[in-house]
């Protein structure tokens, strides 16, 4: 077909790696229309999209370039069906956890493999400047991932960095600045006026229960007289302790002596984020280059939590000869910051600011007050004096003050990275290319902690700790690629070899007894408590190949094979073999659809293959080990530490995938519907052993299980309106997931850990809990379904309610499966709109189904608070015979049973989150060109803007297994900025 271009300039450019295709300016010229193929990054190369048979989602830089994100992991959230993201914490510089197509393992990592510019990457995602990334690809099935063999069971994420373009040089500068705040609100809790009567009520009811002979008057008097002296220890009202609560009513004349009772306000503030980016790129016919420097500084909304990063990068590609192309890139990264306490590791720690401020009762001030005037006290330097908690109840951490400790303690990380790549590509003949790639990454981390000598764990001496680790990764591969076309038949054959080396070096020093103030180096401390170091090595050798064939891009076949040898396992089980086959039928290429104006793309594809997971928790899984350092004075000591099974090996995933890709109305509507079945064999479990065997922890890690993950994925993209001045695009994706354990061996029938029980026929994320029944309306007692062994018994704590056998004793409760953390449906949807110079893009993420075990809420629902905070839901407690409620009576004698772990604390995980939005305005060329500016764009962008969950304060996406911790909740970030190009 001939078309005429008259006095127009086409400016369509397709980028992929170092390749670019530019349409040329023509004037009144007749040319032959040619189709420009979309090229997609795949394992160890690139491929035309229409010939891909694997599941490969590509996200280009324009889709995340304007967002105020520190880690590329944040851009993965919502980017593809089948990808579930546990949102990153509010700690600046943190990255989210990611699962692709379900739960790949039980005992080892479920994280995907990351590959940057063709080389495996082990460092932090926050070390990569997102503005240096050209695209990322999410590989989900065996046909896409099998060339990565033993490390690909959990999917692969390929990150491709930016490169220069041939032609005019370009200088780009961007900056943004804005606000950082809390995105998840706190749970609603009762105030001081409500608190005292509630605690009094628990004491009164407890007295009536524990001393049945007591009258109500006696119990009332008992609670009134002991409320402050025996339990809460503190009275913030200006009335006598024994007159504060009488007959359950707060003294109406009581007034607060002081009002500074908010522990969160001194710790939570408005944070600040700023980012600056400068890059320079260009190239000639033979050489292209891209260089960049960037600076990011983000102060979190929690005091003394921040992240500062400086990056510099240079990438050069050169066609030295028509048969030789070489390239190299190097990135240097320096980052440092103040670390907040991680709630996942320190959930109930006294220095966990989220746990403390959430749980402490509303009757304690952080500050010391004059006992007579009630005025806040200050020292001789004018600094406020903090209350050390000598007068607090048992649940209020006497002797500690999280605000003071946060201010006095230090926890600082300093990270340095070098990420380097180099390649050479030799064109042996028109069909055969030999290339080699080498990647060397090094990360050095130093973490300094100072624990003050004034208050807390290290008082009165003080302590300091330094942890350092260095990770070095060296990857070297050689690739032989043969491409040949015979008429309508297209062949591509890849043969490769790869060597991988990883070295981990660690050192820890801890000393106590500070000598002089203001110095937290180890030399300033007297007593060494810990001094240890270790070095670990990991090696992998691999050989792999791939064969792709297509006929007119219509009938497509693909096959791959990889052999891996891993140093993690013993020699006789060290090598394993991974493979895949795939096929596709591009129905659109058939004659009967070739001229269709309705169907612009239609392809059926499927694949099957095996990949592995050798990323275990130990580098020496087959070796029994001993722990050093257990010395007695000068006598050396060694302890038996780990009993190994020499036959232990990697887990293997057998994956099948079938999908249909479609496009309608000249691809105004495009999408994919996909089904996958992923079976994990040889699951690693800690197998219990008899105590008499003398094995450490009485367990051995062995391959003993099988499970599957299967589900549907749907993605759709539609240009609803598309004309010269106005475009409107809608996109959405949705995924389902079913996980089930199908086999356990070596005598294992079940494994119980926390709130979960693993057994055949159930998911590894199914809850195993006491069965909560409700509240007895006759007396407000907590009720559980009674265990079957109590049928026919007549104990006083066994009852029959509405024909159901129940118990008031949690120790006699029935355990059973109680739902799952896995949702029925999850995904994202969004829209992008452009009108002349204006643009707006938004994205929402959502989840339907699944349950969260809300332990944070559980601690706020104590039926006998002794200085601990209470949820406002406690106001719905049982108080009157016949009352129907789901909150038991407050009772100091039965509160243990009321608050026990059970299905009572499960809540729906449904949520919808306004994940991000960006509003932009681009100036017209006619306005800015006179100043030598080629582009100028103003931006406003937001992350974690709004969420709706089943309960205020709930964060249902903080973990894949549905549990909650007192963690640094995600930050809301709103920024404004601009991009300018010359």
UniProtKB/TrEMBL annotation:
Annotated Gene3D superfamilies: TonB-dependent receptor, beta-barrel domain (2.40.170.20), TonB-dependent receptor, plug domain (2.170.130.10)
InterPro entries: Beta-barrel_TonB_sf (IPR036942), Plug_dom (IPR012910), Plug_dom_sf (IPR037066), TonB-dep_OMP_SusC/RagA (IPR023996), TonB-dep_OMP_SusC/RagA_CS (IPR023997), TonB-dep_rcpt-like (IPR039426)
SUPFAM superfamilies attached to this UniProt entry: Porins
Signal peptide: 1-20
Domain TonB-dependent receptor plug: 51-156
Entry's Gene Ontology cellular component terms: cell outer membrane
Compartments reported by the entry: Cell outer membrane
Keyword tags: Cell outer membrane, Membrane, Receptor, Signal, Transmembrane, Transmembrane beta strand, Transport
Origin: domain of life: Bacteria
Keyword Oxidoreductase: no
Tagged with keyword Membrane: yes
Topology in membrane: Multi-pass membrane protein
NCBIfam families according to UniProt: OMP_RagA_SusC, SusC_RagA_signa
Family: Belongs to the TonB-dependent receptor family.
Protein name: Outer membrane cobalamin receptor protein
Organism: Chryseobacterium indoltheticum
């Amino acid at each position: 077909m001939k078309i005429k271009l008259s006095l127009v300039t086409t400016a369509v450019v397709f980028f992929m790696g170092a390749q670019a295709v530019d349409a040329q300016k023509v004037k009144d010229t007749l040319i032959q229309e040619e189709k420009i193929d979309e090229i997609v990054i795949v394992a160890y190369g690139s491929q035309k999209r229409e010939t891909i048979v694997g599941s490969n989602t590509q996200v280009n830089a324009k889709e995340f370039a304007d967002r105020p994100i520190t880690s590329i992991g944040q851009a993965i959230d919502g980017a593809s069906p089948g990808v579930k993201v546990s949102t990153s914490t509010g700690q600046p510089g943190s990255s989210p956890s990611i699962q692709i197509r379900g739960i790949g393992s039980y005992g080892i990592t479920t994280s995907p493999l990351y590959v940057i510019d063709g080389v495996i990457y082990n460092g932090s995602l926050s070390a990569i400047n997102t503005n240096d990334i050209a695209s990322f690809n999410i590989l989900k099935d065996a046909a896409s991932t099998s060339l990565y063999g033993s490390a690909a069971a959990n999917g692969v994420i390929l990150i491709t960095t930016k490169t220069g373009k041939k032609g005019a040089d370009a200088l780009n500068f961007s900056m943004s600045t804005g606000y950082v705040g809390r995105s998840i609100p706190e749970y609603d809790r009762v105030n001081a006026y409500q608190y005292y009567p509630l605690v009094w009520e628990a004491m009164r009811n407890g007295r009536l229960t524990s001393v049945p002979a007591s009258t109500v008057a006696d119990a009332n008097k008992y609670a009134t007289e002991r409320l402050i002296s025996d339990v809460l220890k503190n009275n913030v009202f200006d009335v006598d302790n024994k007159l504060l609560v009488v007959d359950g009513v707060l003294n109406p004349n009581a007034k607060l002596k002081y009002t500074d009772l908010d522990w969160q306000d001194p710790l939570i503030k408005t944070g600040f984020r700023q980012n600056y980016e400068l890059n320079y790129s260009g190239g000639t016919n033979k050489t292209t280059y891209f260089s960049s420097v960037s600076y990011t500084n983000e102060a979190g909304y929690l005091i003394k939590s921040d992240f500062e990063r400086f990056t510099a990068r240079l990438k050069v590609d050169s066609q030295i000869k028509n048969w030789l192309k070489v390239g190299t890139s190097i990135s240097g990264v320096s980052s440092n910051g103040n670390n907040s306490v991680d709630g996942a590791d320190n959930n109930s720690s006294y220095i966990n600011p989220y746990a403390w401020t959430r749980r402490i009762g509303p009757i304690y001030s952080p500050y010391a007050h004059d006992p007579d005037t009630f005025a806040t006290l200050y020292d001789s330097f004018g600094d406020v004096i903090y209350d050390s908690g000598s007068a607090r109840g048992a649940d209020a951490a006497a002797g500690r003050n999280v605000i003071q400790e946060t201010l006095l303690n230090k926890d600082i990380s300093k990270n340095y990275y070098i990420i380097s790549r180099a390649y050479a590509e030799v064109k042996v003949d028109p069909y055969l290319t030999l290339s080699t790639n080498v990647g060397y990454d090094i990360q050095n981390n130093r973490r300094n902690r100072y624990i003050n000598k004034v208050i807390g764990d290290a008082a009165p001496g003080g302590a300091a700790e330094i942890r350092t680790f260095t990770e070095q990764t060296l990857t070297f591969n050689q690739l032989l690629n043969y491409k040949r076309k015979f008429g309508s038949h297209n062949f591509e054959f890849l043969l490769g070899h790869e060597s991988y080396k990883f070295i981990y070096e660690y050192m820890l020093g801890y000393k106590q007894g500070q000598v002089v103030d203001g110095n937290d180096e180890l030399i300033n401390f007297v007593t060494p408590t810990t001094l240890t170091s270790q070095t670990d090595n990991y090696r992998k050798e691999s050989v792999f190949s791939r064969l792709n064939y297509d006929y007119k891009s219509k009938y497509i076949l693909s096959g791959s094979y990889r052999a891996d040898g891993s140093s993690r396992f013993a020699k006789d089980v060290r090598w394993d073999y991974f493979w895949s086959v795939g096929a596709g039928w591009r129905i659109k290429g058939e004659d009967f659809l070739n001229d269709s104006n309705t169907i612009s793309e239609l392809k059926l594809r499927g694949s099957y293959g095996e990949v592995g997971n050798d990323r275990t928790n130990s580098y020496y899984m087959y070796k029994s080990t001993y722990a050093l350092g257990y010395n007695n004075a000068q006598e050396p000591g060694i302890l038996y530490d780990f009993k190994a099974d020499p036959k232990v090996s990697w887990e293997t995933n057998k994956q099948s995938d079938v999908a249909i890709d479609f496009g309608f109305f000249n691809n105004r509507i495009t999408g994919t519907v996909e089904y996958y079945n992923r079976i994990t064999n040889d699951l690693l479990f800690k197998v219990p052993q008899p105590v008499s065997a003398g094995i450490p922890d009485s367990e051995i890690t062995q391959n003993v299980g099988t499970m599957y993950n299967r589900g549907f994925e749907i993605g759709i993209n539609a240009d609803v309106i598309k004309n010269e001045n106005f475009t409107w695009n809608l996109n959405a994706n949705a995924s389902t997931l079913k996980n089930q354990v199908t086999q356990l061996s070596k005598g294992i029938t079940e494994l119980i850990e926390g709130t979960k029980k693993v057994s055949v026929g159930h998911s590894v994320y199914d809850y195993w809990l006491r069965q909560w029944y409700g509240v007895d309306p006759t007396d407000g007692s907590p009720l559980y379904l009674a265990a079957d062994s109590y049928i026919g018994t007549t104990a006083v704590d066994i009852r029959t309610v509405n024909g159901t056998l129940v118990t008031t004793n949690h120790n006699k409760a029935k355990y059973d499966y109680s739902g799952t953390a896995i949702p029925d449906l999850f995904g994202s949807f969004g829209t992008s709109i452009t009108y002349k110079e204006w643009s707006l893009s938004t994205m929402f993420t959502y989840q339907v189904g699944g349950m969260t075990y809300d332990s944070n809420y559980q601690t706020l629902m104590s039926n006998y608070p002794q200085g601990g905070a209470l949820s406002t839901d406690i106001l719905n407690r049982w108080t009157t015979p016949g009352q129907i409620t789901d909150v038991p009576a407050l009772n100091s004698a039965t509160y243990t049973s009321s608050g026990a772990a059970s299905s009572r604390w499960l809540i729906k995980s449904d949520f919808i989150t306004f994940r991000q939005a960006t509003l932009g305005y681009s100036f017209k060329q006619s306005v800015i060109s006179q100043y030598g500016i080629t582009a100028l764009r103003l931006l406003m962008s937001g992350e974690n803007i709004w969420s709706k969950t089943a309960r205020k304060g709930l964060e249902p996406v903080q973990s894949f297994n549905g549990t909650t911790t007192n963690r640094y909740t995600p930050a809301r970030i709103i920024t404004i900025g601009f991009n300018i190009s010359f």
